Amino acid sequence: MRTTHLLYLHGFRSSPLSTKAQTMAACVRERHPQVHWWCPQLPASPLAAMQGVMDTIAGWPHASMAVVGSSLGGFYATHVAETHGCKAVLLNPAVHPARDLASYIGEQTSWHDPSERFFFEPRFVDEFRALEHGPTRRPDNYFAVIAKGDEVLDWREMTGRYAGARIKLLEGGDHAISDFDAHLPDILDFLALV
Questions:
Q1: 3-state DSSP call for residue 140?
Q2: What's 193's DSSP letter?
Q3: How many domains, the chain?
Q4: pTM (predicted TM-score)
Q5: In the chain, what is the straight-line distance between the N-terminal and C-terminal CA atoms, in Å?
Q6: Among 150, 16, 10, which Cα is nearest to 69's?
Q7: What are the tens digits of pLDDT across the range 128-185?
Q8: What is the rounded CA–CA span in Å between residue 65 and residue 119?
């Protein structure tokens, strides 16, 4: 089944202006103009973020949709993929955001526009827990690009979380996957965009 609808979910403090999101958007626009592309700005509340996403994709053909998620967006992408049974590409995906982001409670700034501020509330930690899933039901639906050099997340936790999935493990790299362009061919091959 070819992918006709593609959702991109950014990470914590990030936005649709991230380099990877912009690169994917340009690639889809130039090479696959018939693909329906959506990369929303996600609110700070995990439940609000997922409710907004699920409401919008409710009318999408789940058999031919896919999701790409970076960092925290990878956690969200897993929720979408487990709920709808679609393909997911995960880029250094967050595995335990309830644990890892608990220390970020308080005022935060947007990575791409430091003048934009939001408050990360204590209840958001519980909202992450409500979105957690057990082992993936269909590991073959997942392709993860994971960098051993990730300075934010532990590559061992990421690879362990997606056991059985297709994993491209980078020997070095960083959390941002600065050489993202080099991995686009593998990502596009997995997504099989129309």
A1: helix
A2: B
A3: 1
A4: 0.96
A5: 9
A6: 10
A7: 999 999 999 999 999 999 999 999 999 999 999 999 999 999 999 999 999 999 999 9
A8: 32
Half-sphere exposure (Cβ direction) of 156: Cα atoms closer than 13 Å? 0
Residue 183 belongs to what domain range?
Answer: 5-191
Q: How far apart are CA 124 and CA 105, in angstroms?
A: 9
Q: Which residues contact 114 (CB under 8 A, 6 or more apart)?
A: none
Is the separation of the CB atoms in 171 and 148 below 8 Å?
A: yes
Q: How far apart are CA 186 and CA 194, in angstroms?
A: 15
For residue 8, the SS3 value is: strand
Which CATH number goes with the domain that contains 101? 3.40.50.1820
Distances (CA, A) of 64 to 75, 88, 154: 20, 12, 31
